[in-house]
TrEMBL record:
CC annotations in GO: membrane
Name of the molecule in the record: Leucine-rich repeat-containing N-terminal plant-type domain-containing protein
Keyword Signal: yes
Signal peptide residues on this chain, from the entry's feature table: 1-25
Amino acid sequence: MAASLFRFTLPLLQLLLLSILAASARNEEDARALTALRRALDPAGRVLDSWNPSGDPCGGSFVGVTCDPAGRVTAVSLQGRGLSGSLPPAVAGLRRLQGLYLHYNGIKGTIPREIGKLSELTDLYLDVNHLTGPVPVEIAAMANLQGGVFCFYASFLGFLGEKFKKQQLLDWLFWGSILHFVCWVTGVLA
């Protein structure tokens, strides 16, 4: 009887151990992506100093990071934090990301096309920054994207390519904020 119980519980214990190891590996992927995000967005290390590369992003010490019960990063909320770096392609490593809120900062550079790989992203807020260049067409293909702002303050030099669905952009731009309307009136959606 003890032998049959052992044969039954051993595979369950192995499965449990494999699940724990798999969850740990996924966390490492998120941690690497957040480390790259920190280096790019806050090169001086003065704003995101709580983002310790050896820390657990879902342990509560990473300011602005929200996780799901499985320990995957689902949101990065850093609006109005005084960030002045750039948005790195490594953000695509946050595979379960649903919300990226980086508005009201001083972020420079271009929007990485890799954001288009974030298949679960529903909210993308990059307004009131100093972004330049075109909005990647990969963003237009994002099926789950519901809330997004493509008004990048006065320094926006890019264009919205022909592949963008105008109605989808109108839905994003008129999502309820006067700022969105101002963006439209000033020619972002010409």
